[in-house]
Amino acid sequence: MKRSLAISAVAGLALVTGCTAGTESPGPALKSATANDPVTVEFWHGFTADNELKAFEDTLAGFKQKFPWITVKATKAIQDDQILQAVRGGNPPDVALSFTTDSVAQFCKAGIFQDLNPYLAAGKIDATALFPKVIAEYTQYEGKRCVMPMLADTYGLYYNKKLMKGNQPPKTLSELADLTKKLTVRDADGTIKVAGFMPTSQMYENAPIHTGVMVGAKWTNPDGTSAIGSDPAWKTLMKWQKDLTGWFGYDKLEKFRKSFGDEWSADNPFQKGKVAMAIDGEWRNAMIAADAPDLDYGTAPLPVADDQADRYGAGFIAGTVIGIPRGAKHQEAAWELVKYLTTDTDALVTLSNAIRNVPSTLPALQSPDLKKDPNFQTFLDVFANPNSSTLPAHVNSVFNQQTLQEAQIAWESGRASDLDALLADVDKKINEKLKLTAGG
Amino acid sequence: MAAITLGNRLRPLAYLSPWLIGFALFFVYPLISTVYFSFQRYDLFTLEPVGLLNYRYFLQDDAAWTSIRNTLWLVVVMVPLRVVFGLGVAQLVTRLKAGAGIFRTIFYLPSLVPLVAGTLGFVYLLNPATGPVQAILGAVGVRSPDWFGDPAWSKWGLTMLALWSVGDLMVIFMAALLDVPKQLYEAAALDGATGWRQFVHITLPVIRPVLMFAAVTGVIQTLQYFTQAMVAARVASGATDSAGSVFVPGYPDQSTLTFPEWLFHQGFRDFAMGYACVLALVLFAVSMVFTLILLRQFRGFGEEDA
């Protein structure tokens, strides 16, 4: 028995120990030579949906035409963990793509991805003229640009025109609450048949990074410590969510939510007509076109806090990022691929038209070839809105979001009743974690 | 003759070397490096000595203490219930006159179901909106709780899952029960002992080593309880794999957050490896304490048997 315990303890320990860190790579070795020897670039990306995969492969074919000596060997369905493990194992791909911007600070700080500023300088590319300003916040950390943006995502309000019964999309949180009550259909016992809007943070895209923008809430102070407890905007948002949740009844709302189909399938509750209004990203346009072409819907910017009417039109912005991991073997060819995917107007416009993401460069946004319809235009406008914001790169980005989301769930379920104490505790946890991981 | 003496001295070491090398490589080295890393800030790439920071963080990390309480709850509630339930089922199945083979198979089968599949099945069955359990209970007017969505019920949901897959224990209990000498029961019956007294005074003492084995392995497994809690929380929370939605293990309200889950999360999600090493050392210490207690119990058995 001792043996098996010892073995299990060792297994646990072995899990958290291991070899020491890899070495810092020497940085870009930019040759001036023009010799175009055949080279194969390993490229890891996260696309899995059939329509997106096809469009992305078409884009890579376009790259092959421009750079016939570079062969791209693409691997699909890669998550951040796999990138990290490969870099750590000393066998990374030449180029890696991530759907989340949450890890950018970690990627930069630990040097998991190389700083691309020298490449940009060598190629005389002016990033400030090429990319909208907000993108700089999630592709850089402490002066290092370790990833480049490849298409962007923005968030807005989708509404089902039939279920709206002639009402216009709401512009403020009060209007959203009123309309939600008006449009909700319930049985005599309170069982929800159609929800006007799902107010809880647990609903698919209602994560605090998306909803916080509705009230202009702040996450962190410039020194990285938490601003959540001291920013009254979070309280405005959470009280609003709690009030509307109370109107439905939390249990009823949870029961209804748990009857929903998968977010990424044709059973998405908005596509099925179970909710009249929903927060979602611009990609939903392409998914509705594919799965529910008969759905009569519209899109609008997210409603804003009642006293911030002038901020209407703003939304949350993030995007796909792409970079060259430390230890990449074919750095020059890798940079050509990164450059093509992130700065080539034709490539970005073609990809945007196919998967309905927002192009991430100013020239691509202004390209006449970019297909625009009113529902997609909403998201382009949100992207261009000066009040739109992103979650600035933070070394504990994921932890910070988790901590707030846990507090939101405790609050909206009624299991925590003192909002001030709850948010003060969020501050404490975030600040302690910052000391643990980053010092200060 | 010195060489021979040295050879004689070294020979036992040579015989022991496979074990020695394995022990050094897979136990001593990881243990030492775990202790070393526990004093560092380590994100897998950069090392920075931070003294006792990781240990101080542990003392005020509410989630870590919550996970310890949850894990102890599972050890104290789930393990005994599994043993009692497994013994009960084994008793019934061994006494069956007809169809014993079928019932043994039925009760054993769930323990062969892969953990993830079984957990997914349970969350689906107990879904408060679409699950068949609620449909059946609703038909007779009873409202089932939101098993994996209510912190008051989530650990009980996991306990039910553990009881459902009790087949592994049932099999060893059955073997032990069938091994109890029949003449003991006959002698007891002659003395007028009824079913319950026979069970307490004959069955239990005879199968005690097997019960102890079940308890020990149960405690060890439960200290490492991970998969079912992770899968149940993930599915029940409805969290999706999309940018911007983060999954928090332990849903709801950290009520299913176990210690190994938190250790894994710190190490491989937040990359606070130094802190994860502190947690690993705590787990190691707790495991050692349990081992010593249980070893003592076993020694007691040996003497009793002799």
From TrEMBL, chain A:
The keyword Signal applies. Residues 1-21 form the signal peptide. Pfam families: SBP_bac_8. Keywords: Signal, Transport. InterPro entries: SBP. Belongs to the bacterial solute-binding protein 1 family. This is ABC transporter substrate-binding protein. It comes from Microtetraspora fusca.
UniProtKB/TrEMBL annotation, chain B:
It is a multi-pass membrane protein. It is found in: Cell membrane. SUPFAM superfamilies: MalF N-terminal region-like, MetI-like. The keyword Cell membrane applies. Keywords: Cell membrane, Membrane, Transmembrane, Transmembrane helix, Transport. It holds the Pfam family BPD_transp_1. Residues 68-294 form the ABC transmembrane type-1 domain. Its main location: membrane. It comes from the Bacteria. The chain crosses the membrane at residues 12-32, 72-94, 106-126, 156-178, 199-220, 272-295. InterPro entries: ABC_transporter_permease, MetI-like, MetI-like_sf. PANTHER family: ABC TRANSPORTER PERMEASE PROTEIN, ABC TRANSPORTER PERMEASE PROTEIN YESP-RELATED. Belongs to the binding-protein-dependent transport system permease family. This is Carbohydrate ABC transporter permease. It comes from Microtetraspora fusca. The lineage of its organism: Bacteria, Bacillati, Actinomycetota, Actinomycetes, Streptosporangiales.
